[in-house]
Amino acid sequence: MLVQKITTLLNHSLTAKQLKQIHGSILVHGLNHLDRLLIHHLITSQSDYSQPTAHYLRLILHHSKQPDVDSATSAMRYFSKHGNFQQALALYSGLQTSGLSPSTFAVASALKACARVCELNGGVMIHGQVFKYGFCGDVYVETGLVGFYAKVGDMGNACKVFDEMSERNVVSWNSMIDGFLRSGDLVMAEGCFARMLDKDVVSWNSMVTGYARVGDMEKALRLFEEMPERNQTSWNAMVSGYVECEKLELARKFYDSMPQRNTISCITMIGGYSKCGDIVSARELFDEMGRKDHLLYNAMIACHAKNGRPKEALQLFDEMLQPNVNIQPDKMTLATVISACSQLGDLSFGSWIHELYMNQMGITMDDHLRTALIDLYAKCGSIDKAFKLFHKLHKKDVVAYTAMILGCAINGKEQIAIKLFDEMMESKIRPNLVTFSGLLTALNHVGMVEESYHCFNSMKRYGLAPTPDHYSLMVEVLGRAGRLEEAHNLIKGMPMQPHAGVWGALLLACSTHNNVELGEIAAKHCFELEADSSGYGSLLANIYASAGRWDDAKRLRKSIYEKGLVKVPGSSWMDHVQE
DNA sequence: CGCAATATCG
């Protein structure tokens, strides 16, 4: 009776609440065989992927003892389709542990998942199982293996499997081409392409992308024009290629002349505009798009966040959550939003996401999100929380270390910052420009001049050229130590145009050490570079005043007032939040 | 079922 009722219900579309009730009944009455129907319902009825669905699905799979092969396989494909490869793999190993034989479908899906999450051992293990289950002659399974080895860059094994295949199809060949292109072997890819009898769009597109990736847009274009058939991906590959080599006008030309654009085309263009700071053009394209998905929102939010517009980023996040828009955010959205919070110093919103929202949406933590949170907590002074997350990272990369180093540097834990840097070096992780900013900040705060020099000079050993920001930090530490002439000489020796911050650092140092002569020089440069800021004038006025030159000080203050520049010096980003 | 174009953290 109950079984009948549930079976009927599951044939209709149901609300989340109804599903929960049904699941409850199944649990209470021990109707485990109905889980299969429930899983099937969840996977098929919901055309759009949503975090709650995935979460719920996980829950059911967890409660049911072990789903049958078909249920597990369809759930695997569901998760895989939506990028949740870990979950798909968990299901596959679930099959293993309960002694069930996977289907060829499950194997193909698992191989894909292994490739995507770079699960090298997993793929090799599955390769072994292929023999055990006698799937050797299956084109799909074997192509899956080729695809796996190609994706993880093991072209030796990819070739081995490929050569021994009794039957090959387009996908097998395309996987090989893709693998060669990924490992940078254009010649071998060209060889495959030439030997292929029946090429399809994917083959052509792969080659176009391959040329675009190495910056050879002439060849990419030639191939693009030769193509017997083009689809959106072909056009997108061209747009992406031009964006990559920063030829935005050409990218836009292709974008505009596409017969039909999709979300990816738009995301690619937005990414291009974002990289060169053209938020306005990016936003225009975004607004033009009729139907927007979460990926498009992610791209636009990231564009704002990356270009110093965290407020707009949060506004857009808010917009996507509005009932009339109602787009589910994903991990990437949250990582970007948290970074915006961190720029704003908005600890409360950021930690709300961490402590409540993620859980509510069924979004699981990953290292990207952790790193974003580390930065947030560190920037907002909760260094202990940052450390806790830092220790939970599965893999500590440059970004994570840098966030932590910078966080310690600005929270009075300079020695720990230095220790973290050493630890990072021992782990053979290459520091980058931002890492050095963090280290220099720490050294700066404790006034370690010689160590700063050492750090600054060691940058070129990593192929890094100091940016004006690094010069600023050097000027600051020298200035603090009263070595003003030396700081001035360092600026004069800069290979690039110093920005206002560099001269500002010198000016500040002159003000603490009451050096009128250098202070005037520094202030002059600051005025030239940033005429609309009053902070510099006030600093110089202070220097005059402390040197007893009251008239000069008065004259300067008067002119600042007349220009209407009455902002208080030292006004920070917090003011921009309010505006 | 499997291959091509996009996007997250300092």
Automatic annotation (TrEMBL):
Protein name: Putative tetratricopeptide repeat (TPR)-like superfamily protein
An example Gene Ontology biological process: RNA modification
One function term, GO molecular function aspect: RNA binding
Top-rank taxon, per record: Eukaryota
Family annotation (PROSITE patterns): PPR
InterPro entries in the cross-refs: E_motif (IPR046848), PPR_At4g14850-like_plant (IPR046960), PPR_rpt (IPR002885), TPR-like_helical_dom_sf (IPR011990)
Keyword Repeat: yes
Keyword Repeat assigned: yes
Per-repeat ranges for PPR: 68-102, 169-199, 200-234, 262-292, 293-327, 397-431, 432-466
UniProt keyword annotations, A-Z: Repeat
